[in-house]
């Protein structure tokens, strides 16, 4: 008979696999899908997000977490098992605060926003994207209210990126950085006229840029045998497992920096995923 922790892991793996299926659809949506397919794709992703939410926020999941926690009582605080329990307790508590209807609304609104942003960017027309952005911001404000907070509304949203960090602390960090950064920026911009960067602004055939970008990514440690470089409007990295961590960039035939530095930046994110310990597979 499986231990309480093993039973929990089986459910975690199921939830993880649903999440990664959503990410595969999202990757294809931004890299390969014809524009006309967006409405159907958003519905497909919304269905999976609803299943993911209901599975994660279920009473069964809460019972599995607590049963495993009780069975592991006394386990070293920094062990993988104890750390996973702490993470799942936090995530489960937050997931329970989001109604099904809200999760579905977030998926539909964000799914419609991206192609609107792509069009607005291409046409340099912010008005096309503005109503979508307003809806996304409003949903995030509603999400913060659903999660709850003591000090500032952004706190529960910031917590998703850096657990435990508060908006007030982040504001203090930015203030300290600003103090040092402003004079540095002033000094640098005062000398830009002395630097000739015209060599960056010439014709660079895209196939050669792609070869150079792949060379750069490989040089910093990105493993293409477990990765892939795709073309998008705005670069991002995503991973479906430690052996399938993908990167993207965009190509400008008259400017080298965008593709090269976009590729190097996203390679760093993907290398983190490629470096995940095998025994942590399907748990994050």
List the helices and strands and how they pair.
Layout lengths: L3 H28 L6 H19 L2 H13 L8 H17 L3 H24 L2 H22 L7 H4 L8 H23 L16 H14 L9 E3 L5 E5 L2 E6 L7 H18 L10
Parallel strand pairs: 1-3
Antiparallel strand pairs: 2-3
Helix pairs in contact: 1-2, 1-3, 2-5, 3-4, 5-6, 9-10
Kindly describe this structure.
- There is one protein chain.
- The protein has ten helices and three strands; from the N terminus they run H-H-H-H-H-H-H-H-H-E-E-E-H.
- It is mainly alpha-helical and 284 residues long.
- The protein has four domains: 1-96, no CATH class; 106-164, no CATH class; 165-195, no CATH class; 199-280, no CATH class.
- The protein has helices at 4-31, 38-56, 59-71, 80-96, 100-123, 126-147, 155-158, 167-189, 206-219, 257-274, and strands at residues 229-231, 237-241, 244-249.
- The chain has a three-stranded mixed β-sheet.
Q: Give the strand content.
A: under 5%
Q: Write down the domain tally.
A: 4
Helix content range of the residues, please?
Answer: 55-70%
Order of helices and strands: HHHHHHHHHEEEH
Poorly predicted runs of 5 or more residues: none
Distinct helical segment count:
10
Biggest β-sheet strands, sense, barrel? 3 strands, mixed
C-alpha Rg, in Å? 22 Å
Average pLDDT level: 97
- Overall geometry: globular
Strand tally is 3
> Span from first to last CA?
25 Å
Helix/strand class:
mainly alpha
Widest β-sheet, arrangement of strands: 1-3-2
Q: Can you describe this structure in just a few lines?
A:
The protein has ten helices and three strands. With 284 residues, it is mainly alpha-helical.
């Amino acid at each position: 008979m499986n231990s309480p922790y093993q039973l929990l892991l089986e459910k975690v793996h199921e939830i993880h696999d649903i999440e990664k299926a959503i990410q595969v659809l999202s990757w294809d949506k931004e890299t390969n899908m014809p524009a006309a397919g967006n409405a159907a794709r958003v519905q497909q992703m919304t269905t999976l997000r609803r299943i993911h939410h209901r599975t994660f926020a279920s009473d069964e999941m809460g019972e599995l977490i607590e049963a495993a926690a009780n069975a592991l009582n006394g386990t070293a605080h920094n062990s993988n098992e104890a750390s996973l329990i702490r993470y799942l307790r936090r995530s489960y508590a937050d997931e329970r605060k989001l109604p099904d209807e809200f999760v579905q609304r977030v998926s539909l609104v964000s799914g419609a926003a991206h192609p609107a942003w792509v069009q607005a960017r291409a046409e340099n027309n912010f008005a096309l994207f503005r109503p979508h952005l307003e809806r996304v911001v409003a949903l995030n404000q509603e999400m913060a209210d659903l999660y709850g907070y003591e000090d500032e509304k952004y706190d529960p949203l910031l917590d998703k990126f850096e657990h435990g960090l508060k908006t007030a602390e982040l504001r203090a960090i930015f203030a300290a950085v600003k103090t040092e950064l402003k004079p540095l920026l002033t000094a640098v911009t005062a000398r830009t006229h002395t630097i000739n960067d015209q060599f960056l602004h010439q014709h660079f055939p895209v196939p050669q840029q792609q070869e150079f970008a792949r060379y750069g990514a490989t040089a910093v440690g990105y493993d293409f045998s477990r990765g892939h470089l795709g073309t998008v409007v705005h670069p991002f990295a995503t991973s479906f497992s430690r052996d399938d961590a993908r990167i993207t960039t965009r190509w400008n035939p008259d400017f080298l920096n965008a593709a090269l530095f976009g590729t190097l930046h996203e390679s760093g994110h993907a290398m983190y995923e490629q470096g995940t310990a095998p025994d942590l597979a399907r748990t994050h």
